[in-house]
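R.M. (postdoc): so does anyone remember the format we settled on? I'll just put the C-alpha coordinates first.
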Protein backbone atom coordinates (compact mmCIF):
# COMPACT_ATOMS: atom_id res chain seq x y z
CA UNK A 1 0.00 0.00 0.00
CA UNK A 2 2.80 2.41 0.81
CA UNK A 3 4.01 2.20 -2.79
CA UNK A 4 0.46 2.58 -4.11
CA UNK A 5 0.65 -0.72 -5.97
CA UNK A 6 -3.01 -1.49 -5.45
CA UNK A 7 -3.24 -4.67 -7.56
CA UNK A 8 -0.24 -6.14 -5.79
CA UNK A 9 -1.73 -5.15 -2.46
CA UNK A 10 -4.95 -6.97 -3.32
CA UNK A 11 -3.00 -10.12 -4.21
CA UNK A 12 -1.15 -10.03 -0.90
CA UNK A 13 -4.39 -9.45 1.00
CA UNK A 14 -5.98 -12.46 -0.71
CA UNK A 15 -3.03 -14.57 0.47
CA UNK A 16 -3.37 -13.20 4.00
CA UNK A 17 -7.07 -14.10 3.95
CA UNK A 18 -6.16 -17.73 3.20
CA UNK A 19 -3.86 -17.86 6.22
CA UNK A 20 -6.74 -17.80 8.71
CA UNK A 21 -6.42 -14.30 10.13
CA UNK A 22 -7.33 -13.33 13.68
CA UNK A 23 -10.31 -11.02 14.18
CA UNK A 24 -8.08 -7.94 14.28
CA UNK A 25 -6.13 -9.09 11.23
CA UNK A 26 -9.43 -9.69 9.40
CA UNK A 27 -10.49 -6.13 10.12
CA UNK A 28 -7.22 -4.86 8.65
CA UNK A 29 -7.74 -7.03 5.58
CA UNK A 30 -11.23 -5.57 5.09
CA UNK A 31 -9.95 -2.02 5.42
CA UNK A 32 -6.95 -2.46 3.15
CA UNK A 33 -8.99 -4.34 0.55
CA UNK A 34 -11.67 -1.67 0.50
CA UNK A 35 -9.18 1.18 0.24
CA UNK A 36 -7.24 -0.60 -2.51
CA UNK A 37 -10.38 -1.09 -4.59
CA UNK A 38 -11.35 2.53 -3.96
CA UNK A 39 -7.96 3.74 -5.18
CA UNK A 40 -8.40 1.63 -8.32
CA UNK A 41 -11.81 3.30 -8.84
CA UNK A 42 -13.49 -0.08 -8.40
CA UNK A 43 -16.10 1.41 -6.14
CA UNK A 44 -18.54 -1.48 -6.31
CA UNK A 45 -15.79 -3.82 -5.04
CA UNK A 46 -14.79 -1.43 -2.26
CA UNK A 47 -18.22 -1.29 -0.63
CA UNK A 48 -18.47 -4.73 1.00
CA UNK A 49 -15.07 -4.83 2.70
CA UNK A 50 -15.39 -1.23 3.89
CA UNK A 51 -18.89 -1.92 5.21
CA UNK A 52 -17.64 -4.98 7.08
CA UNK A 53 -14.84 -2.94 8.63
CA UNK A 54 -17.16 -0.10 9.66
CA UNK A 55 -19.71 -2.55 11.07
CA UNK A 56 -17.02 -4.28 13.12
CA UNK A 57 -15.84 -1.04 14.73
CA UNK A 58 -18.62 1.55 14.62
CA UNK A 59 -19.86 0.76 18.13
CA UNK A 60 -16.50 1.31 19.80
CA UNK A 61 -16.65 3.51 22.88
CA UNK A 62 -14.17 5.96 21.37
CA UNK A 63 -14.92 5.64 17.66
CA UNK A 64 -13.95 9.27 17.08
CA UNK A 65 -10.38 8.43 18.09
CA UNK A 66 -10.02 5.61 15.56
CA UNK A 67 -8.39 7.06 12.42
CA UNK A 68 -8.93 3.86 10.45
CA UNK A 69 -12.64 3.88 11.22
CA UNK A 70 -12.96 7.51 10.18
CA UNK A 71 -11.18 6.81 6.90
CA UNK A 72 -13.23 3.68 6.20
CA UNK A 73 -16.51 5.53 6.75
CA UNK A 74 -15.43 8.30 4.38
CA UNK A 75 -14.26 5.90 1.64
CA UNK A 76 -17.43 3.84 2.04
CA UNK A 77 -19.68 6.89 1.77
CA UNK A 78 -17.79 8.29 -1.19
CA UNK A 79 -17.87 4.92 -2.97
CA UNK A 80 -21.63 4.78 -2.51
CA UNK A 81 -21.98 8.32 -3.85
CA UNK A 82 -19.95 7.43 -6.93
CA UNK A 83 -22.23 4.42 -7.45
CA UNK A 84 -25.22 6.80 -7.18
CA UNK A 85 -26.49 4.97 -4.10
CA UNK A 86 -27.25 8.24 -2.40
CA UNK A 87 -29.53 6.94 0.35
CA UNK A 88 -26.96 4.31 1.34
CA UNK A 89 -24.20 6.94 1.42
CA UNK A 90 -25.90 9.07 4.07
CA UNK A 91 -25.08 6.98 7.14
CA UNK A 92 -21.33 6.45 6.54
CA UNK A 93 -20.86 10.07 5.50
CA UNK A 94 -22.72 11.28 8.60
CA UNK A 95 -20.56 8.98 10.71
CA UNK A 96 -17.44 10.31 9.06
CA UNK A 97 -18.41 13.92 9.77
CA UNK A 98 -19.44 13.09 13.34
CA UNK A 99 -16.17 11.30 14.08
CA UNK A 100 -13.93 13.82 12.32
CA UNK A 101 -15.39 17.25 11.65
CA UNK A 102 -12.16 18.72 10.26
CA UNK A 103 -10.94 15.86 8.05
CA UNK A 104 -14.30 14.93 6.57
Amino acid sequence: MLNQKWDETLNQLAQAQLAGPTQLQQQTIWLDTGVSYYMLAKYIDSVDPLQQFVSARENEDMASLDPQLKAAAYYLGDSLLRLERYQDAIKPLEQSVTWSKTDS
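R.M.: ...and that's the designed sequence above, right after the C-alpha coordinates. Also worth knowing: The longest helix spans residues 23-39. The CA atoms of residues 30 and 49 lie 5 Å apart.
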